[in-house]
Amino acid sequence: PKNVWICGHSLVYWAESRAKSPEVGMQLGMDPSKVTVWWKGIQGMTWSQLLPQLHQLKVTWPNPDILVIHLGGNDLSTESPTNLLASVKKDMTSIRSIFPHCLLVWSNILPRRVWRHSPDSHEVDLVRTTVNRRIHNIVSELGGTSVNHDNIRCGTNTGLYRANGIHLSPKGIDVFNLNLQDFLEKWELENSKNSPDV
């Protein structure tokens, strides 16, 4: 089976528990004989923790065919965008050489109504949009792709966020997971078209 790694901050942690729950069941709807989904969500994780984490996982997990990274939201209001983007570029290039045959997937940093450490959430949101776009380009240059989550909006009436305005509600997490599932299903379809033995 193909191995899909999904790494990131607390959202990945919560997404895993939803994806494995009886309601949703089978790891994002993937057939376990074809795809194994490996989750690594660390609450409060920041960008600088990613590479050390991947090196650690590489020891015990089978190499990924897809690596989905959902990270950076916790860095936006504490790091300068320039520094963050420089780190992302450097680390993504390293990841490309650690896993040369892996498809890199950037999962867009989601909007938040409230950003810790920043009084101006509108300003952080503008930065978020730019950072996503720039990382999108970095990942594309490395042959990767992105998942946009355009259907996750943080208006108060969407019901997709918890009251704190930072974290997704169970409904929001389900939308996030469905976006990933949708992406993986398309990828699997492409994959089966390209492999002659099907």
Run of helices and strands? EHEHEHEHEH
Would you count the extended β strands for me?
5
Strand content: 5-15%
User: If you average the pLDDT, what whole number results?
Assistant: 92
- Choose one word for the global shape: globular
- Poorly predicted regions: none
Q: Note the quaternary state here.
A: single chain
The DSSP helix count reads: 5
The share of residues in helices is: 40-55%
Protein name: SGNH hydrolase-type esterase domain-containing protein
Organism: Xenoophorus captivus
InterPro entries: SGNH_hydro_sf (IPR036514)
Please tag this protein with its features:
alpha/beta, 5 helices, 43% helix, SGNH hydrolase-type esterase domain-containing protein, SGNH_hydro_sf
Summarize the structure.
This protein is an alpha/beta fold and 198 residues long. The chain has helices at 10-19, 50-60, 81-98, 121-141, 170-194; strands at residues 2-8, 35-41, 66-70, 103-107, 145-147. It has a five-stranded parallel beta sheet with strand order 2-1-3-4-5, sandwiched between helices.
